[in-house]
UniProtKB/TrEMBL annotation:
Broad class of the protein's primary localization: other
SUPFAM superfamilies noted in UniProt: Phase 1 flagellin
The name this protein goes by in its record: Flagellar hook-associated protein 1
Gene giving rise to this polypeptide: flgK
Source organism per UniProt: Clostridium omnivorum
Domain (Flagellar basal-body/hook protein C-terminal) ranges: 571-614
Keywords: Bacterial flagellum, Cell projection, Cilium, Flagellum, Secreted
Length: 618
């Protein structure tokens, strides 16, 4: 039944409701600049009115209201905008990583520039052109030797710098994996807390904001899929993850079965001494559980078999393994050894579709490609120049035991000298060591170097027509000192077409250049015939630089596009979830007036009660 005390209770509830509304408004204003905070609003509804007329309830016109109450405090959040922001954040993270490291590759190659490899290649061939005109000049020969040394030093330095950049990429990947697993642990903890609060009947708005902020940050690492579960919990997995039947990294239920990631720090072939396991080549893989390299307890050595060259390359570029919740790599629960290795197919590599990790992995692949292209360039120069310099298509001459006693380019990792003389042309079978000639096929950008015997005595450079008939240039008693035909032939290699693109596949050594490369060597080695399907040495390198420029420009363009797109989505989300101080101040005035009005009702009821109680005494 309605009455003054009922009105008093209604007003009291009204004051309590407006007070809670003011409290929420105050919370919004206090967190106006808090990252990840979503504005909150109170949901106000009427309380249960007086019931229908009954024996104990007098009939009145309509149901009498009993006031208001706060039924919920809700976050203002649009899940679709969250999805869009996280998807685009993942793409931006990928190209941010690419743009950063591709720019560093450009800096290492230093093209175009006066000290770049392209310029040094030109100076190298120019010096041979000059030498052909004055072969008797020690000065011209010294210039050739020094320009060669400058070119090989630049190739060596560039290859080393690319390797260092790759190591830096791997260090960042390791840190990213460690950080990623920590974030997953925090999200899992928040997920369980949110479920607990929801089960208790409350709204964990601030906890959900913290979880969503971590999800936003995590989306920069890899593209993710969020599935909402009961009581506010979520299941989380990488998008497009098809390697595992259950790829959930966060679970609302049975969260101890969620997956994590571990980092591979080293890949080493362990049967290089010639011992072969019954399972074929065996590799020792060292990985750290959850990327934690600060503790040896998390260091695991794993023997793996069944790895092709492509598998090794893929693992080297990826370096991230799917793991159980404790960090143990999936498929490695049993201990492994050299004689009992794990099959590589049981391991699961994490290959995200986008995100920073995808960017780092793709950059490592790019660095490997550029190193490979530099190796092809080094081999093309070494094979062709050595062939013309010696007049030999191979380390032997037409199958005869006569060797190239004065190779111009050598493998710096193998060549040994005594008294400034090259001493290990042949393989040392007893010691299992390769000689200079057999190791020519292993020349790379990192180890290519000019024969120091030539560098120390430039008069041993072969420049004359019949130098190919003699072991050393000084033994030539046929040609005169002014004969520079061989130097000219080497200079002409600048315009020769070589199938550099096939080096590493069908062309693996000097002889292959002429067997499979389509080139021929005639007229005492002075005529190097081009292959119309080949490329010029300097053009090949320019193509490499052009490709790098295009890749870097694409990364820069994608970063700018993603920044613009992401800003648009974030502004849309901010317009929905962000705190507007003007709006909150307006709400504050509204709730304040409502509070004061309810207080006025209480004051009025108090005066009426005073009339009823004290006025009856008169």
């Amino acid at each position: 039944m309605s009455g003054l005390f009922s009105i008093f209770n209604t007003a009291t509830r009204g004051m309590s409701t407006q007070q809670r509304a003011i409290n929420v408004t105050s919370h919004n204003i206090a967190n106006a600049n808090t990252e990840g905070f979503s504005r909150q609003r109170v949901v106000i509804e009427t309380t249960t009115p007086f019931g229908m007329p009954s024996l104990t309830n007098a009939a009145e016109p309509g149901q009498m209201g009993t006031g208001s109450q706060v039924s919920a405090i809700q976050r203002v959040r649009d899940s679709f905008l969250d999805y869009q922001v996280r998807t685009e954040t993942s793409v931006k993270g990928q190209f941010d990583a690419r743009e950063k490291f591709l720019s560093e590759i450009e800096g290492i190659l230093n093209e175009p520039g006066d000290t770049g490899i392209s310029t040094l290649i030109g100076k190298f061939f120019d010096s041979w052109q000059t030498l052909s005109q004055q072969p008797q000049s020690s000065n011209a020969r010294t210039v050739v030797a020094q320009q060669t040394a400058a070119l090989t030093d630049s190739l060596n330095h560039t290859a080393v710098q690319l390797d260092k950049l790759k190591e830096n990429t791997q260090l960042i990947m390791k840190d990213s994996i460690f950080e990623l697993n920590n974030m997953l642990g925090q999200i899992d903890q928040l997920n369980q807390q949110i479920i607990g609060v929801k089960v208790a009947g409350n709204e964990p708005n601030d906890l959900q904001d913290k979880r969503d902020l971590l999800l936003d940050q995590l989306s920069a690492k890899f593209n993710l899929t969020v599935e909402n579960k009961e009581f506010g919990g979520i299941d989380l997995r990488p998008a497009d993850a098809t390697d595992l039947q259950d790829s959930s990294v966060i679970k609302a239920q049975f969260n101890n079965n969620s997956k994590r990631f571990s980092y591979v720090s080293n890949i080493e072939k362990v049967n290089t001494n010639g011992s072969i396991s019954a399972n074929g080549d065996v590799y020792k893989i060292t990985y750290y559980k959850k990327g934690n390299m600060s503790s040896d307890e998390d260091r695991v050595e794993l023997y793996v078999s069944g790895m092709s060259a492509e598998d090794v390359k893929q693992l080297d570029e990826c370096r991230v393994l799917w793991a159980e919740n404790d960090g143990t790599a999936i498929g490695t629960q049993m201990k492994s050894s050299f004689d009992n290795p794990v099959d590589f197919r049981s391991l699961k590599l994490f290959k995200p579709s986008s995100g920073e990790l995808k960017g780092y992995m793709s950059v490592q692949a790019d660095i490997n490609d550029y190193n490979d292209q530099l190796d092809k360039l080094a081999k093309a120069i070494a094979f062709s120049v050595n062939a013309v310099h010696s007049g030999m298509e191979d380390v032997t001459s037409n199958g005869e035991p006569k060797k190239d006693y004065m190779p111009y380019f050598v493998n710096g990792d193998v060549a040994r000298y005594e008294n400034n003389k090259l001493v290990n042309l042949d393989d040392d079978l007893l010691a299992g060591k390769s000689g200079v000639l057999s190791s020519e096929k292993d020349i790379t950008a990192k180890n290519i170097t000019i024969n120091k015997q030539i560098l120390n005595d430039v008069m041993q450079i072969k420049t004359r027509t019949h130098d190919n008939m003699f072991d050393y240039e000084k033994d030539n008693n046929i040609d005169g000192e002014t004969d520079g035909s061989r130097a000219l032939a080497i200079a002409k290699l600048r315009d020769s077409l070589i199938k550099i693109q096939d080096i590493g596949s069908t062309i693996n050594e000097r002889a292959d250049l002429f067997k499979y490369g389509g080139n021929t060597l005639g007229n005492n080695g002075l005529d190097f015939t081009s292959n119309i399907n080949g490329m010029k040495v300097d053009n090949y390198y320019r193509d490499v630089i052009d490709r790098l420029g295009v890749q870097n420009q694409e990364a820069i363009r994608m970063v700018k596009n993603q920044e613009s797109l992401l800003d648009s989505f974030q502004q849309s989300r901010e317009s929905v979830s962000g705190v507007s101080l003007d709006e909150e101040m307006s709400n504050l005035v509204q709730f304040q007036h409502a509070y004061q009005a309810n207080a006025k009702v209480i004051s009025t009821v108090d005066e009426l009660l005073d009339v009823v109680i004290n006025g009856l005494k008169k």
